[in-house]
Amino acid sequence: MKNILIVDDERDIVNALKIYLSDPDYKLYEAFNGKQALDIVEKEDIHLILMDIMMPVMDGITALNKIREKSFVPIILLTAKSEDADKVLGLTVGADDYITKPFNPLEVTARVKSQLRRYLRYGSGNEDVEKITIGGIELDDSTKQVLVDGNEITLTPKEFEILKLLMSNPGKVYSPKEIYSSIWQEKPYGAENTVAVHIRHIREKIEINPAEPRYLKVIFGQGYKIEKRV
Fold first, then answer.
1. In the chain, N or C terminus with fewer CB closer than 10 Å?
2. In angstroms, rounded to a whole number, what is the distance separating the alpha carbons of residues 37 and 41?
3. For 21-63, how does the pLDDT look when each residue is reduced to its tens digit (9 = 90+)?
4. 182: closest CA among 158, 211, 205?
């Protein structure tokens, strides 16, 4: 049984999503603002969250930030077409995906299944312990911890997965499209900008001097890699 939390201040939207996700394998929870969502996440073992951005009491971005302090549960933002800046902010601070209103039921179910599949396979704590060390960077896939020179740093789930991909294959150059396809598991539209933003944020966290990186290198015209030896 997969536990899915639907968060939106419009009850009609919550009810519509409950219909789209009607499945004997899903147990659906509902909340109508970010504060209610946090209360449910504290009490229940939630496997995926669908969450609106604009809500009273506590908005979706604030709730997202608070959830990410404790959990890597997949979060899909529910956004209006006019909320492009919020989409970018949401993806930057830790959302896994977004769906634009009005919803296509097939798109909703496909994206939910994709995120659940990734989370239950890679992110739910059932995988074998895997630690990777390159220079002063230590990545522990079982605890989702990253240490740089002994100090723990905080990465968003997407930043963690990108760093894990590169550290698992040191010296290998990945193009932005390859990184996007591997991490987001969808066609790489807009891959260059999205990946570049995430790479910049990773560098700011793992490099002493991001302008002269020791670890995460750009291979111009080709992509990105982690150095084999530092």
1. N
2. 6
3. 999 899 999 999 999 999 999 999 899 999 999 899 999 989 9
4. 158
